Input
Amino acid sequence: MLIIITAFAQEQDTLFFNEFSFENILKQEQDTIYFQEFQEDMLKEMDALLDLWYIKKQMGGLNMGTLNDNSEEDCLIDSVVTSRLQNLHTVIPLVFNRDIKSKIELYVCKRKRTSSIILGLSQYYYPWMREIFDKYDVPEELIYLTIVESALNPIAVSRAGATGIWQFMYATGKAYQLEVNTFVDDRRDPFKATDAAARHLRDLYNIFSDWGLAISAYNCGAGGVRKAIARSGGKTDFWGVKPFLPRETQNYFPYYIAALYLVNYHLEHGIPFANLTIPFAVDTVMVIKELHLQQVAEVLEIDLDELKILNPQYKKLVIPAYGKFYPLRLKHADILRFIELEDSVYQYKYDDFFSSMKVYEKMFAEDLSDNKRLYHTVRKGDTLGAIAARFGTTIRKLCDYNNLSNANKLSVGQKIRIPPR
Output
């Protein structure tokens, strides 16, 4: 288990900056930048919800009462919020302070309309997410991390390349058997990504025995938390380790507490569930040969945008079932019609959609050959920029492929995976 975790967390426990060194000052500036970027990404994802097809289509008819965002900073009564958090039954260590208050205000005061939409989406996602977390004996309230990660947007992509409702980086997704290639990105499949997230959080808790630290490690990696523990003098809880974590991660767990508060006390702040008509009665049929979503849409007379929402993992709208079965999610009634008209769906305008079939097969074969991985062993003086230039790639791709950030300092002897061209 430990080997899996350390595959995507960088081990730099022997590197410490002097408090007043130039490197430490630079790191503090970078931490501030990363925190600002993290906050900007989160607000961007909240706003991006309004651009999703099934929300934009219904915005005029959404019943969200008379919600008005309140920009006043002091819109919460401290004693009331403290009491409410204390009354929550959870294994997650909860506290209330000014930092957490400001983050709760974001959800229940400053972004009420967006929070209402998030809550509406939660009625679709959270029932089956709870079942998956229960299967792995992971506290079901950890599903609320999706509010912080993506605002429940399954096609969210951060500036660092983290993707999907659980914001998996490429290397972490691969470590948990999420398929990522030219056609398919399982990080965008809410079902598969949730299964992977439950296993990932369980593995992190098995390392740190503290859910606050496990949640933090979900954000910055197990290696980042280990370094923070060492710098704290061996403390083993989030609040003891917090000052030594990356700036972004210091705020990540408090944002989770704010999301937990929102889900449990939104009605007390006059925030209802937005009434979204997402298809709840959905089932899966396995596709046995190559298929384009537009073939399905036209034969079954389904809105293509609806199909894309139900099957966000197919990046090019192609289901590449070449010798392997792939899931297609449809409403219950459409499942029956698909089974009845299956041959017609596969044959419909086949040449139009797959006239370049050999090209598709070649592209997919190249994706499957990803097991021919190239590694570079870090030498003294190596930088991410120098390695990227040497192998004809970019710093961003190296970071995504190795679950790194630009702030990570390389260690001599460290193995860096080189992404395929």
Notes: The two ends are 30 Å apart (CA to CA). Residues 178 and 362 are 21 Å apart (CA to CA).
